[in-house]
Specification:
Erythroid Transcription Factor GATA-1, Chain A, mainly alpha, about 45% helix, 2 helices, binds zinc ion
Length: about 60
């Protein structure tokens, strides 16, 4: 049965390929990596805007 690798869309064969449904071990690992990075999403650090605002205000004060 012909099948397409879900990672790179290359045709892969369930009978001939040990890494089926992937075309290669590389694509299998890529899929694992994608799954892992989705699971361990690192939330973006919250940028404290108030601190930079304060420093800008301080600079204005000194200019005036
Ligand atoms: Zn592939």
């Amino acid at each position: 049965m012909k099948y397409h690798c879900p990672i790179c869309r290359k045709p892969t064969d369930s009978a001939a390929n040990a890494d089926f449904p992937f075309c290669s071990e590389r694509c299998k690992l890529l899929d694992l990596g994608a799954w892992a990075s989705e699971k361990y999403v690192i939330s973006e650090p919250v940028i404290d805007e108030s601190s930079s605002e304060n420093s800008n205000r301080k600079a204005d004060d000194e200019r005036n």
